[in-house]
Amino acid sequence: MTDLITRPLDALTGWIFEHLLQPAMYAAGLMDWAEDAIEWLEFGLFGVFSIAIVWLVCRPLEAWRPVEPVTDRGAIRTDIVYTLLTRLGLLPLVAFVFLASLQAWWEGTVADSGFVPPTLETLFPALREMPLLAFAIYVVILDFGEYWRHRFQHMFGWWWALHSIHHAQRQMTFWTDDRNHILDEVIAAFWFGAIALLIGVPPGQFPLLVLVMRLAESLSHANVRLSFGRVGERLFVSPRFHRLHHGILSVAGHGKNYAVLFPVWDWIFGTADFRRDVYPRTGDPEAPEALATGGWLRQQLVGLRRMGAALTGRGQG
Amino acid sequence: MRRLLACLLLPILLAARPAAADLVYVLNSTDPSISILDAFTRQELRRIPALREVHHLVLSPDGRDLLIADSGGNEILFVDPATGDVRRRERVSNPYHLDFSPDGRHLVVASLRRNQVDIYEARTLALLARLRMPDKPSHIAFRPDASIVYVTLQGSGTVAAISLETREALWEVPVGREPAGIIWHRGRLIVGIMGTENFIVLNPETREIEREIPVGRGAHTIFAAPDGRTLWATSRVQSRIAEIDPSTLEVRRIHEVPGGPDCIAFDPDGRVWATLRWARRVARLDPRTGEVETIPVGRSPHGIFVHPRRAEQ
């Protein structure tokens, strides 16, 4: 099944790299980055593919049972810009260029300390024979990490100043998933790096599962009146579950339903709201209008300014 | 009639097939896994899962273990080359390219991503020294007396020499944009300069580049055939495998092999096996006829090794 996705994608990646990208990099004197380039190409092509799948699944659902009518197409267009910048690898590429040296220095420093970062499979050797289970455990642990990162985004004033960009959207659709401040994305990368130091990075041979997770995250933002039922709501984050998190009374430290994939974390830590008939209006009433209706660049600048204000005590925290 | 012919030919075909065919190990770097191929049928016999990213491999001096480096997984797999069974795994920091010193005393490991070269005691795998290098240590080669290891620094565009006696860097010289593969050849170092179409010949005594060998854009790695009659070099951008005369260092013949040929191994019949990085395949090149056959493997195949099982019969 996985081969159904990887084989055609690999064939396309290989062809583009061999005939277009690598010759261009050679001509530009950039062969030092050739192996990184093919990874970015894979990332970008997978991004195109996943955007197409997400659109094919979510768009009909939004047309079928929308929670609210679409009144601000401009706001959706901004979210589409966020999605394209993130999923096609442009923002991650900028982060990579700035952070590659830092990463090499950090990994070298860790190596010099004598610590060899483990993987789950080295910690629990039985997992070597069960790569799918190993991947699933990685997903659960990383989702737990995401739950707490999300809690902290709402807890600390300076972090909320960045994250409120995500919450300011009043016209929430499946495109809203990637609406994040670039600095917030960098912090997320560091967060992930810290967890990776303890358990390693997950294996990369399950693109189908990555696709399903990406679909689930986008679907949770979709403008669709959809709940997964009494049991399902407790197993996976639904559009209903996550819309409640985006509700106008659920901003900053008053949040509920922080989970990204598995609601069990909200259940355990007392932040769950399983009312299945509640589909509140979304947005952050305290955020400046620019965060709701401004373009990508304006939102980035305002977010940065608000974070600075929060850090220096001049903001609203 | 066809059935009769098949019956008559079958015993001949069976007799022609070696009782135990050679095994070809292919490291699928981003799968990540190790494909084991039957060199005779060219079928994949099995696939060993790896942790994160397998790039290079080397046979231990006693021939007992095949060491496979998983850089992303921070470990080296010790595999029985005759069976493909994983005997043990050792935690090692980001092993990318690795080789044993000719005297068998040291195992030297280059870490491309962590800018380090580690010198281990071969027998115990005790870390003797870690040298911090400027930028992207890529491939390594030894002086035959095992006194010095040479490392290409892909990001710095240099070759560095490290003493295995003092375990200190001796010198570093610029050689060109993005040097990759390196071998010791008759008192000289031959280095693939990936940002150009040339391999360069470096005199390690004078540290001067004595000549260039144009092979094709993206000159990458070079290997000496076991019979010593040919050097085989790859170019990854122009997708070529070149035969080079070991005495004159002139290119005898160019084979156009699409798919980005990278590492090379040789079977006992003199055929050349090369990984094709961008095509999920390996190529089997017969130098006598120039015929190239490709065989599907996993994603981004890189290191390759042929274990000649016929020799064991």
Euclidean distance between termini CA atoms of chain A: 48 Å
Coarse structural class of chain A: mainly alpha
Proportion of β residues of chain A?
A: under 5%
Count of runs of 4 or more consecutive helical residues of chain B:
1
CATH H level of chain B: which superfamily?
YVTN repeat-like/Quinoprotein amine dehydrogenase
**Judging from the principal axes of the Cα atoms, what is the shape of chain B?**
globular
Radius of gyration of chain B: 20 Å
Care to describe what's here?
The complex is a heterodimer of chains A (317) and B (313). Chain A is mostly helical. Chain A has one domain (2-311). Helix content of chain A is 65%, strand content 0%. Chain A contains 14 helices and no strands. In chain B, 5% of the residues lie in helices and 52% in strands. Chain B is mainly β and 313 residues long. Chain B has one domain (19-312): 7 Propeller (Methylamine Dehydrogenase, Chain H), CATH 2.130.10.10. Chain B contains 1 helix and 28 strands. The model of chain B has no long low-confidence stretch (mean pLDDT 91). Chain B has a 4-stranded antiparallel sheet with strand order 3-2-1-28, with no helix packed on it. A 4-stranded antiparallel sheet of chain B has the order 4-5-6-7, with no helix packed on it. In chain B, strands 8-9-10-11 form a 4-stranded antiparallel sheet, with no helix packed on it. At the A-B interface, helix 1 and helix 4 of A face loops of B.
